[in-house]
């Protein structure tokens, strides 16, 4: 290990610079702008003015850059949520979130981690209309699921051997990290697909609510993340399979199954299970 | 341990032209496999476990040489170097058999936080020693040439006792590492701080230059130039590139384009322009 001799002043200098960087941008003018008057006096004294800018204004370049980079990072992780909330208020949430939970990893992909939990808490405090709040949280959950599926590590796909087939009913299927099972009450997945291809930054209204919740899977494929519509009971089967041995999950599904669908359930469950294996929903059998 | 011959014997020709590997170019790249001597990847984009970057990297490395360029080493942070990060970096460099690895002579985090920016320090003697010792350690740890890049900066400090070019030259010399010379950064800083960029170049030991970066920048209404990498290379930067080539060419040259990224043929045409300035 290389310790290197770290001069004592370096910690003090970097602490002051850090405080300057993390000074939240001021939104009061309608854009997020640095407020150099709030910077540490010692740091302002240490910085030299240029011919064009004062010392604090020069530091402000870094302060602005810090926040704008992080705003963009969280926006790109939550593209649907950002457009529904609106970029300006969304950045306000990000500023509060990252003021509480500063980035700590070299991996910038981790910066947005936990933002959805912060947003849920923030929306609960603000008390917007209930439907709006629930739609925004559903949008955030969709953004999180999409990112999780896309960024999942390489996953083995479960291809049952004869031995696996023999213990399939007693074993428990391990869900692939590259698949997510979701339900939506608003037409958010289709809207998200449209918005990520749209460079506009205007706020988008909430989409229509479905007559009944729609189930679907996000599946990572070589060309990107794809969406697959699921029957409600099919989605429920996959949720149960994630937590129970196969035979137990099938039993629970049967118990939950509405009467009109009960007769067709065994054949459907068999078909859904086969399709899920074929599409790589599972990474192994435990 | 690493001499100029080490670099010459690597996968890159000394006058190689390379491009920063960026996601918007993948579609064109994987369809046309254009002629380019090498690609430079941002190391951190490929250190994680996510499959898509790894899969793309595998495809690229089958056909092109790849060098690593980091933004997260935090070489001049007050905290010790992150050994877990270095483990991953070394593994990635080994995996792609990188001819060399580069990062910046700067700090990127403090007090347990990471700022995701390349931050300046006062140019003073005791930081030369710290930079040299750490850079030397990193080079040994990676087992391949390690280059220190000069920053674009927007502020200077009253406590500096060395010029930027003295600071970098000393750090490179005393570490036994290499200079990752960014001529756009020299120009940006020269405009922001009011020094002569040719004077900077004159102080560079070109026998220690591992690679030269070129890129575009943007001038703000208040006169500050920001190193945005979102434009073609400006004429003054091409002039500096020409001056650098006269002083110390040949050297591998790499075009960075990170925002408002054009179609790949446009970026490659911009890279090819470098040949015009090698007279």
Structure description:
The complex is a heterodimer of chains A (286) and B (279). Chain A is of the alpha+beta class. Chain A has helices at residues 8-21, 41-46, 55-77, 79-85, 87-100, 115-126, 130-150, 162-166, 188-196, 232-243, 246-256, 259-262, 265-278, and strands at residues 47-48, 173-175, 179-186, 209-221, 224-230, 282-285. In chain A, helix 3 (55-77) packs across helix 5. The longest helix of chain A is centred in the first third of the chain and has 23 residues, at 55-77. Chain B has 279 residues and is of the alpha/beta class. Chain B has helices spanning 4-8, 26-32, 51-61, 83-96, 125-142, 164-175, 183-193, 197-202, 235-248, 264-272; strands spanning 17-20, 38-42, 65-69, 101-104, 107-110, 113-119, 146-149, 156-157, 178-182, 209-215, 218-219, 225-226, 253-256. In chain B, strand 3, helix 4 (83-96) and strand 4 form a beta-alpha-beta unit. Mean pLDDT of chain B is 94; it is low at 1-9. At the A-B interface, helix 1, strand 1 and helix 3 of A face helix 3, strand 5, strand 6, helix 5 and strand 8 of B. Strand 1 of chain A pairs antiparallel with strand 8 (156-157) of chain B, so a sheet runs across the interface.
Topology:
The complex is a heterodimer of chains A (286) and B (279).
Chain A: H1 8-21, H2 41-46, E1 47-48, H3 55-77, H4 79-85, H5 87-100, H6 115-126, H7 130-150, H8 162-166, E2 173-175, E3 179-186, H9 188-196, E4 209-221, E5 224-230, H10 232-243, H11 246-256, H12 259-262, H13 265-278, E6 282-285
Antiparallel strand pairs in A: 2-6, 3-4, 4-5
Chain B: H1 4-8, E1 17-20, H2 26-32, E2 38-42, H3 51-61, E3 65-69, H4 83-96, E4 101-104, E5 107-110, E6 113-119, H5 125-142, E7 146-149, E8 156-157, H6 164-175, E9 178-182, H7 183-193, H8 197-202, E10 209-215, E11 218-219, E12 225-226, H9 235-248, E13 253-256, H10 264-272
Parallel strand pairs in B: 1-2, 1-13, 2-3, 3-4, 4-7, 7-9, 9-10, 10-13
Antiparallel strand pairs in B: 5-6, 11-12
